[in-house]
């Protein structure tokens, strides 16, 4: 879990009901706050009275899987078992082991608004369930990289949608599809091949979507974030006082540069080049672009380095994460302008645009469409089936 916990070396844990570790010996005391921390490559579980040194991972298992057994991590509740591992030698990463349908009850109300119409929530339940089934071989986190998951924070209408579609998934030729979805397609759906270089699927056509609310957006980005000539390194605490002009954009950029191998604290000097190629897909989404970022990097020992990161004529999905998906909302770009001191990008939609538009599904629900009609609109040619039916047919075919 990354969305709510982030990267941390310490967690607060509390349990309701009886939980034991995998070997069934150590019992975690109910109603007592425990601190789980990383110390010299091992985990340490402490409370006011006890201290327990653990290995690199351990798992807490409830005596019974029910709502009377709840584990709380940093004030967020979860059902089922919880595994804790050490990540990157310094962070604690909890992994929730939970039944599929209960997992979905923690996904649906966080992927869409739980106040939306029941038929929209049912369509989201099918998309989320199908997506989960096709990603069972992966360790999914709770972020938009997979599906947003809120743990045991359920909403009545969303839970009802999950219950009333229990076991139903979206299939094509008797196999679950990759049920992609995004917030808004900007009025035109996209084909999966254009986004992920996969084999194009017929149920992801490029077509006008009359239900999507378009979601226009504007991104304005200054070229100069910090003027190098004005930085006075002789001042006390000068590094920590440096603040770029657009923090909401710059912070994702720094994190992305860290992931590219530029370790240490970073201060962005400028985005000295940004360009969006006029070459478009059939959906009118942009294909390629270029970016050049100049920045200072402070190493652990205090050394300051001047660095340049540059991408030229690359797939645009390499550029958007550098600027941040919450501001550079989609590849559906209407205009790109370069001015003397800043860039302006205007576009439509929010996300990749493949499969179901969540806002479009909301409007369909408002207009009285049933969830099966919403699914047919966004995944044309597919069939809704029960997981058990597919598993039985596969078993029969193998017999």
Molecular structure report:
Helix 3 (118-133) crosses helix 9 (371-378). The protein has a six-stranded antiparallel sheet, with no helix packed on it. The radius of gyration is 24 Å and the shape is flat. The protein starts with 9 loop residues before the first strand and ends with a helix. The protein has helices at residues 100-105, 108-111, 118-133, 156-164, 192-196, 247-259, 320-323, 358-366, 371-378, 387-398, and strands at residues 10-16, 19-21, 27-28, 34-39, 42-46, 51-54, 57-62, 70-73, 76-78, 81-87, 91-97, 168-172, 175-176, 181-182, 216-222, 265-276, 288-298, 304-315, 333-338, 342-348, 356-357, 383-386. The model has no long low-confidence stretch (mean pLDDT 91). It contains ten helices and 22 strands. The protein is an alpha+beta fold. A hairpin with a 3-residue loop joins strand 19 (333-338) and strand 20 (342-348).
């Amino acid at each position: 879990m990354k969305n709510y916990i982030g990267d941390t070396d310490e967690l607060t844990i509390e349990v309701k009901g009886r939980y034991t570790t995998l070997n069934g010996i150590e019992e975690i005391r109910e109603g007592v706050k425990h601190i789980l921390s990383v110390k010299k490559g091992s985990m340490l579980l402490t409370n006011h009275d006890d201290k327990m040194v653990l290995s690199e991972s351990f798992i807490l298992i409830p005596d019974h899987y029910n709502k009377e057994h709840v584990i709380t991590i940093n004030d967020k509740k979860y059902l089922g078992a919880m595994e804790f591992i050490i990540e990157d030698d310094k962070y604690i990463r909890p992994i929730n082991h939970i039944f599929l349908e209960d997992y979905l009850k923690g996904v649906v109300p966080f992927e869409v608004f739980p106040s939306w119409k029941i038929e929209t929530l049912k369509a989201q339940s099918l998309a989320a369930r199908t997506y989960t089934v096709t990603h069972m071989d992966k360790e999914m986190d709770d972020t938009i990289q997979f599906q947003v998951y809120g743990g045991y924070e359920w909403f009545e209408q969303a839970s009802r949608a999950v219950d009333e579609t229990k076991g139903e998934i979206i299939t094509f030729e008797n196999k679950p599809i990759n049920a992609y979805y995004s917030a808004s397609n900007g009025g035109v759906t996209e084909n999966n091949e254009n986004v992920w270089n996969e084999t194009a699927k017929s149920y992801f056509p490029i077509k006008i979507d009359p239900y999507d609310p378009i979601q226009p957006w504007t991104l304005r980005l200054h070229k100069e974030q910090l003027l190098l000539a004005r930085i006075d390194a002789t001042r006390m605490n000068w590094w920590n006082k440096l603040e770029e002009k657009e923090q909401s954009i710059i912070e994702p950029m720094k994190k992305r540069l860290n992931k590219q191998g530029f370790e240490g604290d970073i201060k962005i000097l400028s985005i000295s080049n940004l360009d969006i190629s006029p070459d478009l897909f059939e959906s009118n989404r942009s294909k390629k672009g270029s970016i050049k970022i100049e920045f200072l990097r402070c190493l652990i020992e205090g050394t300051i380095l001047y660095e340049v990161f540059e991408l030229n004529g690359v797939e645009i999905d390499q550029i958007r994460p550098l600027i941040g998906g919450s501001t550079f909302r989609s590849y559906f770009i209407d205009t790109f302008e370069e001015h003397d001191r800043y860039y302006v990008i205007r576009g439509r939609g929010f996300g990749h645009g493949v499969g179901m538009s969540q806002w479009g599904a909301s409007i369909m629900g408002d207009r009285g469409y049933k969830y099966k009609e919403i699914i047919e609109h966004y995944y044309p040619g597919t069939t809704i089936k029960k997981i058990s039916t597919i598993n039985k047919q596969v078993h029969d075919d193998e017999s």
